[in-house]
Queue: 3 jobs
Job 1
Amino acid sequence: MLMMHSIAKAELSLQEDDTAAALQQIDTGIQQIGEFCGECLREEHGEAENITRERYLSNLIEFRSDLETLDADATEAESDEEDILAELERLLNEDEE
């Protein structure tokens, strides 16, 4: 439930083009699931901790990694776009001289 809730909130943030908020939602979910895993271990429910860690925590970590990759790609694309615009402006200014 925690994993699905975190991903759903992250998806809502992504719909608003707010990758930072999406990452924060995933980080919160990772923290909550980590706390749950710790509780399972303290209560000697090792199997529940193992299942939670392998299925749910790993999914959130993978989702976070994907978000970071997408964010880096978007930042790189913006940088490339700025470079192209700067080059076009330089070329236009050359023609005016």
Job 2
Amino acid sequence: MEDLSGWKLSFSIAYRCTDFIAIYKKFLRYPSDREYVISFSIPIPDNTQAPYGMPPAVDGRIGYFHPGRSNSSHLLNPEYDQYDNLDQYILAAVIKAIDLGFTKGFTCYGKKIKFQDL
């Protein structure tokens, strides 16, 4: 984006019980705060998916499951096995999400915003 015209760009990262890293295709817009928000969902593994995963609760779950939806989000495989601990995984997941989001692009009021070839 060449010019935000005084608007801020923020990232909203939610940790969810889901199957994919999800990068929402559209910006959220908050005119009263003059803010654009890019939203991501990062799945947190349970201890059967990764050695550093969360143990399940008494009911055997780690939360209410929210499936990834390709019609509203760009989806990435979390690749839990590539990381040694939860901190490494979360940092890498956020970096991959930001990169994919700007590579594929976001839509904001009909305008496509994405990386440009130099």
Job 3
Amino acid sequence: MRSFKYLLPVLLLVFTTVNLSAQSNLLKWVAKCESLKDVETTVINRNNPDTRQLERTTTKIVFSDNESLLNELFTAFDNDKSSTTKYAEKKENEKILPSNCRFFDKIQKTDTRFVFHFDVGGRNFVLVTVRYNYEE
């Protein structure tokens, strides 16, 4: 019984760490994009009209002609897709590209969605929507 007292906090820490890092690679990519000058980033916050609490955040990332940033996105998606609630890929020009993915965090009650659009002309955009206090 005594060892169980010490094991429980460790298990909770491991569970929380695994759960929080579900989309960590994609979130690192988003943070990198927000710091780059040649990447257009727009953030839209939506508050609940009754409580005035933050209900949803949408981040739109637009970039062009940046092959390394695009490859980093593909790698981040591949690393995180096994942790998703759902994900979709599409085949375009003989290449498998991410289409969208969703992560649900029961502990923090957040629903995070990524939607990807890749343009043949080189203009790409990613929408990241986080809904707070969300329950399935």
